[in-house]
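[agent] plan:
  1. take the single chain provided in the ticket
  2. run structure prediction with default settings
  3. attach structure tokens to the ticket
  4. add a short note for the reviewer (M.T.)
[agent] executing step 1
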Amino acid sequence: MSQVIQAHTVVNKDVLVIGAGGAGLRTAVQILSRRPETSIAAVTKVSSPQKSHTTTAQGGVAAVDPADKLDRPVYHMFDTWKGSDCSADQNVIKNIVDSAWEQILWLDAHGLHFTRNEEGRFSKRTFGGHTLDFGGPSAFRAIFEADRTGKGIMDTVWAESLKGNVLFFNQSLATELLFKDGRCIGAVLFEAPKGSFTVVLAKATLISSGGLGQVFKITTNCRQNTGDGLALVLREGLPVMDLEAVQFHPTGIVGPGILASEALRGEGGILLNKDHEPFMEKYAPKMKDLAPRDLVARSIETEIREGRGVVNPDLNLPHVWLDIRHLSEYVHTVKLPEITSFFSKFIGIDPRRDLCPVRPTVHYQMGGIPVNAFGEVQQDQERIMDGLYSVGESACASFHGFNRLATNSLLELFTMGKTVGDRIADYLHKAPEPGDKPRQCAEKTSALFSGYLEARGSDNLWTIREALRTVMTEKCGVFRNEQEITEAIETIKELRERTEHIRLTSSSLIMNQELVDRFELDNLLTVAMTVAVGALARKESRGAHSREDYPQRSDAFQYHTLAYRQEDGGVRLGQRDIDMSLYRQEDEHARHFGLLERKY
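[agent] step 2 finished; step 3 output follows
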């Protein structure tokens, strides 16, 4: 079988982009704006970049308008730092926030139709944790395109990438990174429609492959978000960072798990328990329903745990209510038509007359592949890997720390895309040619896929996958403790052993979805183990990582977790310092960027 797994085709490009969503294509477009002659190949798991997960983002993009008489960029920086539970990198916060408005104007100039008010200015809405005057009243700083802002961004960067003749490998996977003389020179791809393996040699390789949401059973993430980019670097001996920081969005629609955007609460939606009591005032007296996501998610879970959740036999899952019945017809039909329609489409209720069932659902990974402020992948705290970059949700700079504020994800996506694009464009001036295909090229891929096809046994791939997602949901969820995390780790080890006994029903390489699923299962198990080990080691509660047995944040853990995969499947941990340059610059605002108590 190993003779079949060979990479005969070699493609030479200047840049290889692994993951053709909003972040990857914004980076590609920036490279092309600087160097129009650059040849770029982009890989996507889906049938078209327009199916990328970026298109599902709803609510908006946080950016401070310089003409705003109330808001200031430093307030946005403060909100991001405080929201991160004092664990984001302050140099990255400053770089992204300072460039936000410029990039909003770039999107507007390149065709994104932001919603405007009657005066023709950008409309703005508020989201959880966004304030004026360092924790004062709510800030209206999110710019948006109705409730499909991500789709607008994706349309824009995809159209621009087509102008640059980017070569797309659709329905394809990156299976192995290639290295030469201490630098990355490309990757091996599996082109599922052809059933063939292709080597792409490139001066620069960018990983922008999205998140890990499918590690958990209930998630807003699309089917393809299986942590592939994270597993890819872990297999190559490179680290990932802060994977224990997984965001649970407070308001997933009970049933499908689809996101009911925070924009609904920004417009005035209210969370109610089974007795129809608004409960957020107990947990966040000032910001109430617009507190940061980690706090709201824990509040909902607490209401459910203490018997004030709704037990609905039709939905078979305890939940709380989101009340948007009082919102205007204009909000329901013009401002947020797609979001409100989800309730009628997927669970058969009319949100203009009925209460909407919601509960926390896995939404976003704050951690990822460790990069510096320019998107260069780090081997450890001191060294970078030449020729290798990452951006978007697969990367961790870290802008979000241990809790992401709403609307900061799309902001990071295209601001860092611009920054990383500039860095790659500069690197291409001096980057050596990758040369010929390495002698041992694709050996790891051959061993991996041959093993899948040759395995014999009676274990079922999807049974193992669902067992993994169940244990991660139950043992590494909103609330965690040592016993349950340890149980999760032991279960993951057992599931890993069982994968050796999965027999695929087809040995074909061409359009074999079962083969792709098998590859994804390995990635899910690798990433899940890293999440669990990091969660066990971090004996504190910080942002979205909430330990019942260690309920307070601890200065002893004021660092980023670096995690390396070991040959036996275990995980070795290291550390990276948290940048606190805004605090150390000792200007008039410095005191707002120390180790703050998070009260809302």
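[agent] step 4 note for reviewer: Residues 443-554 form a domain with the Methane Monooxygenase Hydroxylase; Chain G, domain 1 fold (CATH 1.20.58.100).
[agent] ticket updated
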